[in-house]
Specification:
With 186 residues, this protein is mainly alpha-helical. It is 73% helix and 0% strand. It starts with 7 loop residues before the first helix and ends in a 6-residue tail after the last helix. Pfam families: ABC_cobalt.
Length: 186
């Protein structure tokens, strides 16, 4: 069995994904800030992070689905976070840590299929693994352990739905459109 490695075309595609999503991630911070302002007076400001997390995790699954090379999902996510950082977003260099954590989460979903399944099952798996890994990270980084159990359940469900919609369903629809347009091979 031939093991696929990165070629120049793959590196260029990874760079394009990172640039496009780095800009999207930068813009998503404004959505996050707006949601935080809107939800804080009613006691749900922290949920803004969970509602927008799926947006910040789109580059990894897209790179994984398009390149189908072990490590591509991690690199897509990490490089997208690096571009966001270089654009001067509000989190600075901590984006690199977040990008690495998010990349590990998405990569794990592809790993569970041994990089052989690229369908809706993979969408569900990457959504679940990224939700779990990023939620665990926020448990420590953002002090989620201090929230009431009912708030944690709401946050976890909000994060999973955000992952499923943005980094799952939307990414898969983008891949399907690119395939139908013969931009990529199925």
């Amino acid at each position: 069995m031939h093991k696929r490695t990165f070629h120049l075309r793959d590196i260029i595609l990874l760079a394009l994904i990172a640039i496009i999503f780095g800009v999207i991630y930068y813009a998503a911070a404004f959505v996050y800030n707006g949601l935080t302002v809107l939800l804080t007076p009613v006691g749900y400001g922290p949920i803004a992070n969970d509602l927008t997390m799926g947006i910040w995790c789109m580059a990894g699954p897209l790179a994984g689905f398009l390149l189908r090379i072990p490590g591509s999902s991690f690199l897509g996510e990490f490089l997208g976070a690096a571009v966001e950082m270089f654009l001067g977003d509000q989190w600075g260099a901590s984006n690199l840590i977040s990008g690495a954590v998010q990349g590990i989460g998405t990569e794990l979903g592809f790993t569970l299929t041994l990089y052989k399944v690229y369908n809706w099952l993979t969408v569900i798996l990457t959504s679940v693994t990224t939700t779990i890994i990023t939620f665990a990270w926020d448990w420590f980084r953002n002090g989620y352990s201090h929230f009431a159990p009912s708030m944690l359940v709401i946050m976890l469900v909000a994060r999973f739905l955000s992952m499923l919609v943005f980094s799952g369903i939307l990414v898969k629809l983008i891949v399907n459109l690119l395939t139908r347009a013969h931009v990529i091979r199925s």
